[in-house]
């Protein structure tokens, strides 16, 4: 353990050993298993990580190797990251919901020899692609259930590897300390692959120094301590999870909590009651949708009380949370009553009663959605960043929250706007390189050391950064007005009945949209009105559903009409797609971002129908399931017109 006493806590293994020394009995990791929470303190985690590292070394893992990690958020998968780093290796977390063929590129590109997976499902994927990955030599699995009859020699149960590692550690007690001592802050610690919205994913190489710097910045900014609890449920391959559930946990020494499964996240969230929470906008949208569905099913008195006090919250809740003085005494009294009868119970249902700081990032969040959470007393803030910047470029300071900004540059980060409106970033948190792609690295980081984010934005008068859209997606309508599709789409997705939206309008004389309904919300709405349906495709084409979505679209248009910059982006025509956009069909990335170009090409016939004035359009689409099966979905899609408002031009 001597490495941790050197005073140089500049790598993740050294941070881990330091926690084992200074707060060894404090809980480091929890996992819910068979309905019961299991807890490991920092001393136990350090011992487990050390055993995994020794077991990997026994199998031949060495300095410079890349270790792929695939599965849901499991303690031993997080520990395996640190074990690889102890040996001078690089952790390469991959999206667990990717189909086998999607994993081939990363396994080949990163030259993966070792993979640690969660369970039988992920083992089967590795068996399916092993012939395409000649470098792959060892597959380790955490959960042995279902693995009894698998007899391939390259498969290893993690239990056996750990047992062998403990024997190795007893026989060679100086091995791990010596390996940790060889590590430097400039070593690559993790390789996170980009989502690949415009092409093949790129491996982003981040060093110990960059992620520790990003974590320290956030910990200091929000005054995080070792007393925090966080629920670790987002994909381990996503930069946001790596920052919050790995880097910040190892910097601050707080507890990460792994849910039993994806299906139990809401229940586990309520049981843990995290003090620190992170989720992309889609999760907050889904939580709000769940709330609205439940309120629609509630009794008349409850509904009336909910809507009355939510109007109070919308009027003054965010201002009260920010400690502003302009709120009247009557509003403060009404808000206190609302907190007693509505907001407090609502936060409890959402598992947010103890939250001190909550963040969202990964995509723009609609201002209305943002205001909703802050108005009920959840200190929700936005951050801005990317995989290449450790997800920590801008943060929103307490009491300086703006619903349409992503905050101010984080401590130690320089941000400037290029002449073309692109956001440029410089600081310690920048990637070291794109793996084996020197030309891409040179293109992304200019001669002055600024990373070109690809996002379009500007600073307001208070120094807050506002992101408009991806620079490549910002276009112009035929009349020269700016068209930022993501801005409009986020307004649509605020409605509980709309799950996804894709807007078109570049070089066109009007904006049109594809809509995905939220099956849960719209299904519940239809059932309460005795509207029978046979599935998503049938429900999506019901005349009543079109009227419902039309009202949402026209409400967005009314909102857009009051903003001169985007008033021309009102939606004139829309259709409801016959299927949900899906990562398995390449329409979304694994982080649920729309592959706009792919969608436009795949559904070109629908776009032509929208702009061609047609009232309907037949389409047949091939869909792919996770197990490789394919099927076809066909429908005659209705096309609806939406009311737009006159654009008010400012006098010259």
Task: Using brief descriptors, characterize the structure shown.
single chain; 652 residues; alpha/beta; GMP Synthetase, Chain A, domain 3; 3 domains; five-stranded parallel beta sheet; five-stranded mixed beta sheet; 21 helices; disordered N terminus
- The count of β-strands is 29
Which CATH architecture of the largest domain would you pick?
A: 3-Layer(aba) Sandwich
What is the highest CATH level, the class of the largest domain? Alpha Beta
What is the topology, as strand order, of the major beta sheet?
A: 4-3-5-6-7
Indicate the CATH topology of the largest domain: Rossmann fold
How many separate structural domains? 3
The CATH superfamily of the largest domain is ANL, N-terminal domain
Q: Uncertain regions: pLDDT < 50 for 5+ in a row?
A: 1-6
Largest sheet: 5 strands, parallel
Describe the global form.
globular
The overall average pLDDT, rounded, is: 92
C-alpha end-to-end distance: 71 Å
Structural topology:
Layout lengths: L11 H11 L4 E7 L2 E6 H18 L6 E5 L4 H12 L3 E5 L5 H10 L4 E4 L2 H10 L8 E4 L13 E3 H14 L3 H8 L5 E6 L9 E5 H14 L7 E3 L7 H14 L2 E4 L6 H8 L3 E3 L2 H17 L2 H22 L7 H22 L6 E4 L6 H9 L4 E5 L9 E2 L12 E2 L4 E4 L4 E5 L6 E2 L3 H7 L6 E9 L5 E6 L4 E2 L5 E2 L1 H9 L4 E7 L6 E7 L1 H10 L7 H5 L2 H18 L10 E6 L19 H7 L1 H8 L4 E9 L5 E9 L1 E2 L11
Parallel strand pairs: 1-11, 3-4, 3-5, 5-6, 6-7, 10-11, 12-13, 13-14, 25-26
Antiparallel strand pairs: 1-2, 8-9, 9-19, 14-15, 15-16, 17-18, 18-20, 20-21, 22-23, 24-25, 26-29, 27-28
């Amino acid at each position: 353990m001597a490495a941790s006493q050197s005073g140089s806590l500049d790598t993740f293994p050294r941070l881990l050993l330091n926690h084992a020394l200074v707060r060894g009995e404090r809980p480091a990791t929890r996992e819910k298993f068979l309905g019961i929470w299991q807890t490991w303190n920092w001393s136990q985690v350090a011992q487990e990580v050390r055993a995994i590292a020794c077991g990997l070394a026994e199998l031949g893992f060495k300095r410079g190797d890349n270790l792929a990690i695939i599965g849901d958020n499991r303690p031993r998968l997080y520990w395996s990251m640190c074990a690889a780093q102890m040996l001078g290796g690089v952790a390469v977390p991959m999206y667990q919901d990717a189909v086998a063929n999607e994993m081939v590129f990363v396994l080949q590109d990163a030259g993966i020899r070792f993979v640690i997976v969660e369970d039988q499902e992920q083992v089967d994927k590795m068996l399916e692609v092993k012939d395409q990955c000649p470098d792959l030599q060892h597959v380790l699995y955490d959960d042995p259930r279902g693995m009894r009859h698998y007899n391939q020699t390259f498969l290893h149960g993690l239990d056996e590897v750990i047992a062998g590692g403990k024997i190795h550690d007893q026989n060679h007690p100086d091995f791990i300390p010596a390996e940790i001592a060889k590590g430097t802050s400039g070593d690559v610690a993790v390789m996170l692959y980009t989502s690949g919205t415009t092409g093949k994913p790129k491996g982003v190489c981040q060093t110990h120094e960059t992620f520790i710097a990003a974590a320290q910045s956030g910990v200091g900014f929000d005054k995080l301590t070792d007393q925090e609890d966080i629920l670790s449920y987002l994909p381990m391959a996503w930069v946001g999870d790596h920052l919050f559930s790995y880097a910040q946990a190892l910097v601050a020494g707080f507890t990460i909590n792994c849910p039993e499964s994806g299906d139990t996240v809401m229940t586990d969230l309520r049981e843990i009651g995290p003090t620190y929470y992170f989720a992309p906008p889609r999760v907050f949208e889904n939580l709000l949708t769940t709330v609205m569905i439940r309120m629609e099913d509630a009794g008349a008195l409850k509904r009336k009380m909910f809507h009355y006090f939510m109007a109070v919250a919308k009027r003054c809740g965010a201002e009260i949370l920010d400690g502003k003085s302009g709120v009247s005494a009557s509003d403060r009294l009404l808000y206190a009553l609302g907190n007693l009868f509505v907001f407090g119970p609502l936060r409890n249902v959402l598992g947010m009663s103890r939250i001190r700081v909550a963040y969202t990032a990964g995509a723009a969040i609609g201002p209305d959605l943002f205001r909703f959470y802050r108005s009920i007393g959840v200190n929700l803030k936005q951050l801005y960043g990317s995989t290449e910047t450790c997800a920590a470029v801008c943060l929103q300071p307490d009491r300086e929250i703006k619903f349409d900004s992503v905050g101010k540059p984080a401590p130690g980060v320089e941000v400037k706007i290029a002449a073309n409106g692109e956001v440029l970033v410089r600081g310690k948190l920048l990637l070291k390189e794109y793996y084996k792609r020197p030309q891409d690295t040179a293109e992304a980081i200019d001669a002055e050391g600024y990373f070109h984010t690809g996002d379009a934005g500007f600073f307001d008068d208070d120094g807050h950064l506002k992101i408009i859209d991806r620079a490549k997606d910002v276009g112009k309508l035929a009349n020269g007005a700016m068209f930022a599709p993501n801005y409009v789409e986020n307004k649509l997705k605020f409605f509980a009945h709309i799950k996804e939206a894709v807007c078109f309008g570049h070089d066109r004389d009007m904006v049109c949209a594809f809509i995905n309904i939220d099956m849960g919300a719209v299904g519940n709405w239809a059932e309460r009105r005795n509207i029978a349906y046979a599935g998503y495709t049938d429900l999506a084409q019901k005349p009543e559903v079109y009227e419902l979505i039309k009202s949402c679209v026209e409400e967005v248009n009314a909102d857009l009409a009051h903003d001169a910059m985007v008033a021309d982006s009102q939606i004139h025509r829309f259709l409801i797609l016959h299927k949900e956009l899906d990562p398995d069909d390449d329409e979304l990335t694994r982080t649920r971002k729309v592959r706009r170009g792919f969608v436009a090409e795949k559904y070109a016939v629908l776009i032509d129908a929208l702009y061609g004035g047609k009232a309907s359009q037949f389409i047949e689409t091939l869909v792919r399931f996770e197990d490789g099966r394919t099927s076809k979905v066909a429908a005659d899609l209705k096309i609806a017109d939406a009311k737009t408002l006159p654009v008010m031009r400012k006098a010259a």
